[in-house]
Amino acid sequence: MKNVEPKTLKGFRDFLPKETKKRQYAIDTLKKVFESYGFEPLETPALEYEEVLLGKYGEEGDKLMYRFVDNGGRRVALRYDQTVPLSRVVAQYSPRGGAGQNELSMPFKRYQIQPVWRAENTQKGRFREFLQCDVDIVGTTSPLSDAEVIAVATNALKTLGFKDYKVLINDRNNFSYFQESMNLSQEQVMAVIRAIDKLKKIGRDGVINELKEKGFSYDQAATVIDSISNIKPTEYILEIMQNLKKMGIKEERIQFYPTLARGLDYYTDLIFEIEIEGYTAGSVCGGGRYDKLIAMFSDKDIPAVGFAFGFDRLIEAMDALKLFPDNLETTKVLVTIFSKELKEKSIEISSRLRSNNINTEIYLDENAKLEKQLKYADQKGIPYVVVIGPEEAEKNQITLKNMQTREQKTFNQEGLVKELA
Question: Are 179 and 264 in contact (CB under 8 A)?
Fold first, then answer.
């Protein structure tokens, strides 16, 4: 049989233990923050019927979606984001969704941490499979809920260790206000939204050129940009900002940003993004209100607001700013095997340490020299090593070696458990 070259698909990645520990640390931290606000976990399938996802993200989103026909002849698609599947779940399981089920309480507050797939052109901070981390409130139009999702996002960043970040906030309705004055069609407004959303990336001239490709004259395109740039915050946005202030969010962290557009078609009112100073790959968080999306799966409008962390960008930013703890080990102690004759002693102390909730690994080759076992602990970053040699066994004692300081202490079993716990 021909050997297969071991390699990963472009845009997809393996996460070895060192990186996985970082991801687990961030996920565990985020879950604690989300649950402190009363949000509950939700999971949805990787595959949805194509019709569930298609047409919800705009033309670009449809192009980037992984779609295919399965072995049963069904047209299916890989999850593109978690907002549309959430909308399907609400329509399917809530009493307001019209499907006759009553398994969700309203308002429904959920968080979801699962992978999504997009056929992106890979670049820094962009992959074809990546983890999204969503928080949403469904079933209320209160500006307090808009403020809460922003507060959750900022509290999560603060808990992860970020100090310098900015929340850019806007009202999607602002793009409708100038529609009438310029007599633009809905299709033209959506073209404006998608183009101006790229203002930071491609600049004023780039946006003008993109709008010219959509049928705008140079003067029309320039007027659109100027008109949007000079829009003032709506009363609705001012109320959200006031609520954030009452929630303890510093005013300087929140910035009204009239050219913020967010390209997805389903946003209706609040939109926001969070940028981190010192991280240049783009925003790490984005979200807003989408009060009409769930109605695409139901005969009723059900309001909703939420956000998603770009989890990979979050990890990159934490790496860049050195926010991970120095020691993220999962194993606290390695129990060595001095010899075959003393193997049972090592097995016994390993079991006792684990029964006391101390993460313990036993070296699995009783023929290996002690030096090799110590090197193994060093390579894995295990902070402590237990040695039971003939002298320790005779006195019913155990030697504990600190792998950082190289200091050694001797204990009986009870004393060792107390020291490591």
Answer: no
DSSP 251: G
Q: How far is CA 97 from the centre of its chain?
A: 27
Q: What are the helix and strand counts (H, E) for the chain? A: 15, 16
Residue whose C-alpha is closest to residue 268's, from 146, 86, 182: 146
- As given in the structure block, the two tokens for residue 44 are 């949805």
* Burial profile 313-344: b = 16 or more Cβ within 10 angstroms, e = fewer: bbbbbbeebebbeeeeeeebbbbbbbeeebee
Half-sphere exposure at residue 270, Cβ-oriented, CA atoms within 13 angstroms: 31
CATH topology of domain 333-420: Rossmann fold (3.40.50)
| Phi-psi region at 183: left, alpha or beta (left = phi > 0; alpha = psi -120 to 50) | left
Phi, psi of 317 (to 5 degrees): -65, -40
Domain boundaries, the chain: 17-173+234-320, 333-420
With the CA atoms of 369, 375, 376 and 380 taken in that order, what torsion angle do they form, in degrees rounded to the nearest 10? 170
**Residue 123 scores a pLDDT above 80:** no
pLDDT confidence of residue 103: 85
| CATH homologous superfamily for the domain 17-173+234-320 | Bira Bifunctional Protein; Domain 2 (3.30.930.10)
User: Which residue, chain included where needed, has tokens 């469904």?
Assistant: 138
| Local confidence band at 60 (pLDDT 50, 70, 90 cut-offs) | confident
**Residue in the structure block whose two tokens are 């100038």:** 178
User: pTM above 0.70?
Assistant: yes
pLDDT band for position 298 (cuts 50, 70, 90): confident
Spatial CB neighbours of 237, under 8 Å, sequence gap ≥ 6: 169, 170, 171, 256, 270
Separation of alpha carbons 17 and 373, rounded Å? 19
Q: How many residues does the chain have?
A: 421
Give Cβ neighbours of residue 20 (< 8 Å, ≥ 6 apart).
none
pLDDT for the residue 99: 58
pLDDT at 97: 63
